């Protein structure tokens, strides 16, 4: 005899409440059910997967500040890294959903043979289910995927800074190429004047064939150097335009940056920078998060020989002949205890341990590499200060020697005024080159130590 319908509905409601209350117990600190921590990955903002930027006009004239302000979507590498970040967060959300309450509707229109005759076998029911406890297997996988998501976020931030430094380098290369062309152009003009004078003397038989041919060969060498400098102007502009995804827009005029913040910076002790790198470097943080993910995976694989408990409830039209056989509701509390898997668990645990060992070795190797990189930049910055003094001395000499040569020229004395002008241009080039190298060294040191790149370029 069937139960009253109200009684059946109450039983189904009790089953649903049991599942929901079990899920709630997981968040109580004194519960015997495993606590589920609040994971940081759930609060991470989902990256916006923007399409690559279409053609746009580069600022004219181009400044370092406007170049660094270009959208990150101009870089295919950053878009790819952004996609990997989104994939990692989606995988985390997918893994986290495996521990959620299941709610679904089951439906079937069917027939079956029973007692030598065909009968209806239809189904329409509401199912609610949840895994109650699995000794940390599911939570370990969720924690592992959370760490992978955080690691990918660190890598994305790392690539953004690397791209900014690459933009600085290409911008500086264009300016240096323009200065180098100016030097080679002045050298060619001086050599041309010397060759033209030698031609007149050669026609008057005042210099030998050997001396004249040597001047011609020297002039051709200088002409080749000037051509190389001219090609370098085009090549560096092509590289800059291609880097920002606008290969058809070669920048014409670039504004020289005034790197005031670089000039006032002073070095601390080497050990301080190395400690900062080991504590804050983005690549190292990413690697350490991957190591934590591997450790969580090992915890999950180690618990796969433990039983799994779950609860399920169904309510509705479970069968056409529910009064005789299946009724209108069902409630299960089940256990799945693996007894033998042919060594699969042992192999997975061994693989997880090997992954941890490999990642630990990679972390140690990266720490060694970071110490070397920081030390290399540190001593380059030390040497840069000495080069700055040397360039200043050479610039003062070149400037004074130009005044001296100009005075001799005005007095119609023998002078090398043209060479003096080239020497002064070379001195200016060395000063600019040293300033750019110093700015890049500081930017790279900031990047390695995980601190914001301190570069206030005006304009």
How would you sum up this structure, described in words?
The relative contact order is 0.13. The protein is an alpha+beta fold. It is built from eleven helices and eight strands. The strands form three sheets. It has a four-stranded antiparallel sheet, with helices on one face. The protein has a two-stranded antiparallel ribbon with strand order 2-3. Helix 8 (282-302) packs antiparallel against helix 10. 63% of the residues lie in helices and 10% in strands.
CATH superfamily: Outer membrane efflux proteins (OEP)
CATH class: Mainly Alpha
Question: How would you state the average pLDDT, rounded?
Answer: 80
Low-pLDDT segments? 1-49, 408-415
Reported for the largest beta sheet, the result is: 4 strands, antiparallel
**Fraction of residues in helix:** 55-70%
Question: Distance between termini?
Answer: 89 Å
Rg, rounded, reads 37 Å
Identify the strand order in the major beta sheet.
1-4-6-7
Structural class from helices and strands?
Answer: alpha+beta
| Overall structural domain count | 1
CATH topology: Outer membrane efflux proteins (OEP)
How would you describe the shape? elongated
The proportion of strand residues reads 5-15%
């Amino acid at each position: 005899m069937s139960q009253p319908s109200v009684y059946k509905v109450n039983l189904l409601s009790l089953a649903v409440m049991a599942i929901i209350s079990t899920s709630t117990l997981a968040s109580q600190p004194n519960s015997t059910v495993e606590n589920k921590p609040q994971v940081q990955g759930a609060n991470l903002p989902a990256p916006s997967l923007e399409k690559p930027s279409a053609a746009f006009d580069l600022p004219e004239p181009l400044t370092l500040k406007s170049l660094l302000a270009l959208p990150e979507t101009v870089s295919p590498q950053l878009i790819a890294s952004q996609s990997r970040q989104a994939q990692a967060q989606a995988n985390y959300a997918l893994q986290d959903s495996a521990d959620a309450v299941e709610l679904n509707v089951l439906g079937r229109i069917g027939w079956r043979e029973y007692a030598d005759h065909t009968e209806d076998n239809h189904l329409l029911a509401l199912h609610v289910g949840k895994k109650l406890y699995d000794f940390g297997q599911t939570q370990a996988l969720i924690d592992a995927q959370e760490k992978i998501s955080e690691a990918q976020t660190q890598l994305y931030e790392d690539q953004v800074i690397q791209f900014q430094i690459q933009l600085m380098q290409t911008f500086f290369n264009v300016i240096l190429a323009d200065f180098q062309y100016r030097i080679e152009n002045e050298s060619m003009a001086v050599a041309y004047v010397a060759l033209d004078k030698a031609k007149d003397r050669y026609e008057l038989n005042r210099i030998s064939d050997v001396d004249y041919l040597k001047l011609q060969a020297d002039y051709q060498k200088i002409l080749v150097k000037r051509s190389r400098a001219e090609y370098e102007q085009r090549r560096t502009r092509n590289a800059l335009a291609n880097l920002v995804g606008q290969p058809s827009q070669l920048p014409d005029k670039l504004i020289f940056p005034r790197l005031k913040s670089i000039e006032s910076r002073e070095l601390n002790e080497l050990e301080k920078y190395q400690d900062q790198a080991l504590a804050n470097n983005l690549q190292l943080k990413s690697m350490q998060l991957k190591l934590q993910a591997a450790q969580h995976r090992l915890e999950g694989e180690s618990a796969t020989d433990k039983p799994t408990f779950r609860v399920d409830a169904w309510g509705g039209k479970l069968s056409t002949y529910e009064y005789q056989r299946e009724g209108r509701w069902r409630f299960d509390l089940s256990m799945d205890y693996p007894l033998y898997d042919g060594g699969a668990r042992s192999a997975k645990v061994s693989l997880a341990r090997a992954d941890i060992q490999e990642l630990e070795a990679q972390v140690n190797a990266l720490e060694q590499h970071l110490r070397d990189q920081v030390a290399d930049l540190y001593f380059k910055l030390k040497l840069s200060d000495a080069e700055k003094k040397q360039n200043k001395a050479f610039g003062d000499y070149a400037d004074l020697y130009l005044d001296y040569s100009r005075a001799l020229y005005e007095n119609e004395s023998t002078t090398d005024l043209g060479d003096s002008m080239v020497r002064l241009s070379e001195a200016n080039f060395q000063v600019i080159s040293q300033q750019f190298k110093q700015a890049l060294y500081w930017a790279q040191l900031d990047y390695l130590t995980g601190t914001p790149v301190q570069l206030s370029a005006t304009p």
